[in-house]
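Slide 14.
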Amino acid sequence: MSAISSKRYVSELNNFIDRNVKVITVRGTIYEGKLIGLDQSNLSICLSDAISGEEKYPRVIIHGNAISEIILKEKPFDLKGLSDRLSKLFPNMVRYYEDAGFIMVMDRIKVTAEGVEGSGPMYERVKKVYDQYIIEQKGA
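Slide 15: predicted structure.
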């Protein structure tokens, strides 16, 4: 895997953190839970509130070599779509940093999947667009 592909892979996997996932091991064991940790050196993961069959576990750590599949169980946040919408309202003032997972508006308002950081009237406008976008995404 090239360095760029590898970086993109880890970036995608980082987007799974704090999301509900289904993990299938090479032995066929299935775990479902919230991905709360990732060791980038060997791709080991940590799940919280995991379920496997009838068993429930507060924490499960699965070594990267034992993982066959990791499946995101919820729709990922469309940061690119939000960036496009903001670009229409603020032409030439929006930068989308896909690898880092955030949007910068006017070089002072930071937007992530978790919320908006900043202050002032422009922050209020961006926050309003963000809140409306969240409502629309939940309804979709």
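Speaker note: Helices lie at 3-14, 79-89, 121-139.
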